[in-house]
Amino acid sequence: MTNLFPILSVNNFFPDPDKIVKYAKTLKYKQDPDGRYPGVRTQSLNNIDPKFFNIIAHALFSPFYNYSKEAISWKNLYICFHKNVPYSKSFDDIRNKGWIHKDDSLLAGMIYLTKNAFPESGTALYKPKVKNVKGEEHVAIKKKFYRHNIIDIKQYEKTMKLNHSRFIKTHEIKNTYNTMIMYNGSEYHAMQNMYAHPKKERLTLLFFLQAFKAPTYPINRLDNILKQI
After folding, report:
1. Within a domain: residue 24?
2. What is the mean predicted confidence (pLDDT) over 52-64?
3. Is residue 133 part of a domain?
4. How far, in Å, CA of 209 to CA of 228, rounded?
5. What is the DSSP pairing of strand 180-184 with strand 188-191?
6. What pTM was estimated for this model as a whole?
7. Buried b (16+ CB within 10 A) or exposed e, 3-29
8. Does residue 36 form part of some domain?
């Protein structure tokens, strides 16, 4: 997908993040039946709390648009809470590390909601070493582990190293409480570690956007200005 937005990080996103965490604890979470990701997620919040969903949606795009003057719209926006409990209390445990992948979306991101988290449990962005990244041999291994907790640890580690060897890290965002990060869905990325705190799960508010309409887009505006050089 075309890159329309820059990588963005906003500190102190919620005025009262503790209130959001408290709210997140009241919701129901489910494991993905296909094992596409570790941990558990809620339904998209538009199905649970439409008012809260709409506030978050407007807040996400407010750094780029003035709602009173610009007509923008979106569809297929998915916002949910996601909890990860580490498989062990060790940063070196391969099971706690995330796989490099990209989302099938226009835009994606999250808000970190674990207070006093280990900074190294954040998110990293990557670029491929070659134009066409091939090799999805890790998908079956990953899904088998996340869905059934079945793992051949040597094969798992070997395959993850092969997966990571195809990429170069370009950005690393630390897990800082109440920080929002946003990146294009075409960006390869990975959770650095799901061991975020000795006594707490790694809690995030995730969002994925499939379609967006606006008179102009941030990267297009940037490109148009630079064409004058």
Report:
1. yes
2. 94
3. yes
4. 31
5. unpaired
6. 0.94
7. bbbeeeebeebbeebeebbeebeeeee
8. yes
